[in-house]
């Protein structure tokens, strides 16, 4: 192995001046005997370098008692890293390893083929942890030919390409303030039917089983979760406009009170957890329906609804002036105006155990606060899929939060999604960290004038990293 390293380092020293390789090379080139390579791509993704290429092995032949081991190496001065090897074995050599239950030449991770079964092409992919020495390293392909008893018969080294990293500014993530109490709520509407002029609930009456079930399932979905405490159940009852306003007020109050009693009997909430409100006639709901209808006198009816007439006079005038429209509304709209809106408010306990946070993020991410998402992200290497997923989940849960959008923008930048980063930054604020992130994005877009402007602004706002990055940018540009 020391001999191999010596050859690799010596070769690197010879080609580093003579060749100017780039991170992406689509050309097909002969590298070592029997092997040509095309579509080479070396790309950093956060804490890793992804190496992809297409090997053409159609010209590679191996005698039956020999083996050829192909190993890519990253080399930079005295630092080097061997990547996953591909072994091609003659018939006797192949069955020797199989019969004796031994690892192949380079170990159990080797991708191995019997020469008669080898494919003409191989899509080679490897993901390796990034180290600083890899910037400026050369990717080489080492061919080793072996005979009986693993005797090394010949060696050959060819150059594949060079990895040179573009300037990547340090990204600044913002830790959200921890929440003392996380609050949330479930909201909905139930259309409970009552017999004419009655305020008593009959669960089996018409669609009441399903409508009452809406409220019950909403309460149960949080009540049965030991991490959640229900703090209030709010009910607001509405009646439809037909009949007198005074009578409709009595119905709205009475029917909402009946629903409160029904829920209290089911759950035995303590104290004043259940509160009620009422709206005698749901004119807003009527207007919404009319506005989206095809009624012949839609505009005139909307004008009456928006007018200054008292509710009873307003309803009587619609009925008198537009009897066909009124009849249609009475049959198709008014039943839906007799409804109860509800809101179940609750608090969620805080989490500090990262493993628990990661589990909840997969199961019910809506239970997490931004600070808890941030704690989970610290467990992952920036740029990895797991790291990015944490911040993208956070911004889905808090789509308008400026810190959530800033951190999601940084995560998107780290994995190379500049379009996504720009979209998230549009919803970030003008904090020093957000201004700096816009400068970092401008660097990635090679808009260096904008980058300097943003970095200088962030520096003037007191962000120390902005000055460091500005110096690095100027040094790199020189």
Description:
The protein is of the alpha+beta class and 478 residues long. It folds into 3 domains: 2-163, Immunoglobulin-like (Sandwich); 182-346, 2-Layer Sandwich (60s Ribosomal Protein L30, Chain: A); 369-477, Alpha Horseshoe (Serine Threonine Protein Phosphatase 5, Tetratricopeptide repeat). It is built from 17 helices and 15 strands. The longest helix is centred in the middle third of the chain and has 23 residues, at 245-267. The radius of gyration is 35 Å and the shape is elongated.
* Biggest β-sheet description: 6 strands, mixed
C-alpha-based Rg, rounded: 35 Å
Query: How far apart are the termini?
Result: 40 Å
CATH overall fold name of the largest domain: 60s Ribosomal Protein L30, Chain: A
CATH architecture of the largest domain: 2-Layer Sandwich
User: Structural class of the secondary structure composition?
Assistant: alpha+beta
Into which percent range does the helicity of residues fall?
40-55%
Helix tally equals: 17
Please give the domain count: 3
Shape, per Cα inertia axes: elongated
Number of strands: 15
Unreliable spans are: 1-22
Please name the defining characteristics of this protein:
478 residues; alpha+beta; 60s Ribosomal Protein L30, Chain: A; five-stranded antiparallel beta sheet; 17 helices; 24% strand; elongated; disordered N terminus; OmpA-like_sf; TPR-like_helical_dom_sf; DUF3868 domain-containing protein; DUF3868
């Amino acid at each position: 192995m020391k001999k191999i390293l010596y050859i690799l380092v010596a070769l690197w020293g010879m080609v580093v001046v003579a060749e100017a390789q780039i991170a992406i090379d689509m050309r097909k080139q002969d590298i070592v005997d029997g092997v040509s390579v095309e579509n080479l791509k070396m790309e950093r993704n956060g804490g890793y370098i992804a190496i992809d290429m297409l090997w053409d092995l159609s010209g590679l032949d191996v005698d039956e008692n020999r083996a050829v081991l192909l190993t890519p190496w990253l080399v930079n001065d005295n630092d080097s890293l061997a990547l996953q090897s591909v072994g091609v074995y003659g018939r006797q050599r192949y069955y020797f390893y199989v019969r004796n239950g031994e690892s192949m030449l380079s170990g159990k991770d080797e991708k191995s083929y019997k020469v008669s079964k080898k494919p003409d092409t191989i899509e080679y992919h490897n993901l390796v942890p990034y180290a600083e020495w890899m910037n400026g390293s050369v990717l080489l392909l080492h061919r080793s030919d072996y005979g009986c008893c693993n005797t090394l018969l010949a060696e050959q080294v060819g150059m594949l390409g060079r990895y040179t990293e573009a300037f990547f500014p340090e990204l600044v993530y913002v830790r959200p303030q921890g929440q003392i109490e996380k609050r949330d709520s479930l909201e909905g509407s139930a259309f409970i039917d009552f017999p004419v002029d009655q305020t008593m609930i009959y669960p089996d009456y018409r669609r009441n089983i399903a409508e009452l079930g809406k409220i019950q399932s909403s309460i149960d979905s949080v009540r049965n979760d030991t991490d959640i405490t229900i703090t209030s159940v709010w009910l607001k009852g509405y009646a439809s406009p037909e009949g007198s306003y005074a009578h409709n007020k009595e119905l709205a109050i009475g029917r909402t009170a009946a629903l409160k009693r029904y829920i209290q009997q089911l759950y035995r909430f303590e104290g004043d957890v259940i509160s009620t409100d009422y709206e005698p006639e749901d004119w807003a709901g009527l207007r919404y329906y009319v506005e989206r209808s095809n009624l012949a006198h839609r505009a005139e009816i909307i004008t009456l609804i928006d007018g200054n007439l008292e509710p009873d006079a307003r309803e009587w005038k619609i009925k008198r002036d537009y009897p066909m429209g009124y009849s249609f509304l009475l049959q198709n709209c008014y039943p839906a105006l007799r409804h109860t809106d509800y809101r179940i408010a609750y608090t969620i306990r805080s989490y500090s155990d990262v493993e628990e946070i990661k589990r909840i993020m997969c199961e019910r991410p809506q239970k997490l606060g931004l600070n808890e998402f941030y704690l989970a992200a610290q467990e992952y290497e920036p740029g990895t899929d797991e790291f990015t997923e944490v911040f993208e989940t956070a911004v889905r849960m808090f789509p308008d939060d400026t810190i959530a959008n800033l951190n999601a923008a940084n995560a998107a930048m780290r994995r190379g999604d500049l379009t996504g980063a720009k979209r998230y930054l549009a919803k970030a604020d003008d904090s020093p960290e957000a201004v700096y992130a816009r400068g970092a994005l401008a660097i990635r877009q090679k808009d260096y004038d904008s980058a300097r402007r943003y970095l200088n602004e962030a520096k003037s706002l007191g962000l120390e990293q902005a000055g460091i990055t500005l110096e690095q940018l100027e040094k790199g540009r020189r």
